[in-house]
Design goal:
single chain, alpha/beta, Ribulose 1,5 Bisphosphate Carboxylase/Oxygenase, Rossmann fold, 2 domains, 4-stranded antiparallel β-sheet, 4-stranded parallel β-sheet, 10 strands, 24% strand
């Protein structure tokens, strides 16, 4: 089953039109129902990162765990916060403070040799939120990675037959939102092909609005 850009544009426009005005800028969301998978099996669990071609309207906040040169470059690259080994160690056992930190960012990077420590200190909070960092070598240039993460969404089915994600904000152009949605659907379809699953139905909605079903065709 495939979805056309035209069908997406039409559904996104309808979702915007039927959404009541709010005192905040709503996100546009994509909801994908799956079939052909057994959600109880570990191999049917999906975690997928997709870089949106037109971004999210409001860039993701990026957090970096690093020391030395990698930390310096991360700051130069505009990381929203950089934390080194000493501060990570200080936070051990401070679950309340770690939870506050976890709410301050959307995407996360970490110097590879800090991952074991981060897993021990931050893992119990970041893991369930789908915010565990992506490891990079201490010699890597984090700047282009940070730029990609500002436009990246993470999809997780968490043992269920559905995926959902933001594809931008309600103020973005319908065509751009549709292209973002297509980028997500292409990656999901590719992943499902490897697992023997399929996309069943697709919906779009604003944060507080009702879902609008998107017409799909065989293909």
């Amino acid at each position: 089953m495939t979805v056309s850009k035209e069908a997406l544009v039409q559904a996104i426009r309808q979702a915007k039109e039927q959404s009541k005005p709010r005192n905040f800028e709503q996100s546009m969301e994509l909801l994908i129902a799956l079939e052909g998978l057994d959600p109880k099996k570990p191999e049917s669990r999906i975690t997928l990162d997709v870089v949106l071609p037109h971004g999210l309207g409001k860039p993701n906040r990026v957090f970096v765990f690093a020391d030395g040169e990698l930390a310096r470059l991360a700051r130069e690259g505009g990381a929203d916060r950089v934390m080194g080994k000493g501060e990570i160690q200080r936070l051990q056992g401070q679950r309340k403070e770690i939870k506050k930190i976890a709410e301050q960012f959307d995407m996360c990077l970490a110097q590879a040799d800090l991952m074991v420590l981060i897993g021990k200190v931050f893992g119990p909070v970041l893991g369930p939120r789908g915010k565990m960092p992506r490891p990079i070598p201490a010699t890597a240039n984090p700047i282009p990675i940070i730029e990609r993460l500002r436009r990246t969404v993470r999809l997780m089915n968490k043992g269920q037959l559905c995926l959902n994600t933001k594809i931008g904000s309600e103020k973005m152009d319908e065509g751009q939102l549709a292209e973002n949605a297509l980028a997500v659907l292409e990656e999901v379809d590719r992943k499902l092909s490897d697992l023997g699953g399929r996309i069943k139905t697709v919906y779009v909605k604003t944060t507080m609005g009702k879902p609008v079903k998107i017409g799909m065709v065989e293909g």
